[in-house]
Amino acid sequence: MSATTEPMAGTQSVRRAVAMLEAFTDERPSWTVSDLVEHTGLNRTTAYRLLTALESAEYVHRDPIGDIYRLGSGLIALGGRAQRAYTVRTIALPELEALATRSGETATLEIMHDGKMVTIEEIPGEYVTSGNQHIGSRWPIHATSTGKAMLAHLPMREVEVLLSESLPSLTEKTITSAAHLRAQLAKIRDDGYAVAAEELELGFVAVGAPLLDANGLPVAAISLGGTLTRMTAERIPQFGTEIRTAAARISHRLGYRQQSEPTNGTDEKQSHL
After folding, report:
1. What average pLDDT does range 16-35 have in this prediction?
2. How far does Cα 258 stand from its chain's mean position?
3. How much is the pLDDT for 214?
């Protein structure tokens, strides 16, 4: 291994610690050391050493009863600082609050990370919605309005990579065909918003629009989501207009300026879809 490719000293320990932290999920919020060892493939001594270091930073908390570990309060503080560091969040927050107030539905801000949509801000509306939506939630791109809205504005090479993986079915209405989803992208661009009707969760409908940067590329997306009884097909255009207009204002503040669509078919984002 050359000097340029050899990992820097200490990176292995950092990667192992990160792997341990990422083992904690909504589905598995607590672990015993034995289970963590089996899950991560680390030896017991290394696992104990890393957990002790993480506990000292309050990134994990050990419950002495049962010797069970959970994520600690230090990560809450760290996550809050990370959340506030997103410029797009600061700009989008007033629009999210206004959308939630006007519509009564839940407004969210989401970013794309590692092939998933991640909720980084949520403003509950007047009405009760799904209990599964909250900050930090990760959802498949193909089953969300925000994911589809971002796909419609990404360069084709990125779209193809994202759609090259299997598209799992979350409900009977989830689009699992890449060709079917790809065929929707032109309409989503024309409409300025995307709809996910019971594709993520039965009874839940969301309308999302992309937030574009100065280069016209999506950096995040916002959405309004609620129950099927309120987010009816008749009301979707109204919600779509609201979310599209709010997204346009945010995008303008992010540096995006509307330009005429190319007519020669050479634009990388458009000509292939």
Report:
1. 90
2. 25
3. 87
Tokens for 98, please give them.
């206004």
φ and ψ at 9, to 5 degrees? Answer: -60, 135
Mean pLDDT calculated for residue range 212-239? 94
Number of H helices, E strands in the chain: 9, 9
Q: How far is CA 260 from CA 9, 156, 185, 265, in A?
A: 51, 19, 18, 13
7 has pLDDT over 70:
no
The answer to whether 122 touches 95, Cβ cutoff 8 Å, is: no
**Which pTM does this prediction carry?**
0.69
What is the sign of the dihedral through the CA atoms of 38, 137, 153 and 178?
positive
116-174 confidence digits (pLDDT tens)? 999 999 999 887 665 556 778 889 999 999 999 999 999 999 999 999 888 999 999 99
Which ranges in 41-118 belong to alpha helices (H)?
44-56, 73-85, 87-103
Torsion (CA) 41, 45, 48, 51 in degrees, nearest 10: -60
Give the pLDDT of residue 268: 42
Buried b (16+ CB within 10 A) or exposed e, 1-15: eeeeeeeeeeeeeee
Judging by DSSP bridges, how do beta strands 60-63 and 68-71 pair with one another? Answer: antiparallel
Pairing of strands 194-197, 60-63: unpaired
Q: What is the pLDDT of residue 68?
A: 93
Parallel, antiparallel, or unpaired for β 204-212 and 116-123? unpaired
pLDDT of residue 266: 32
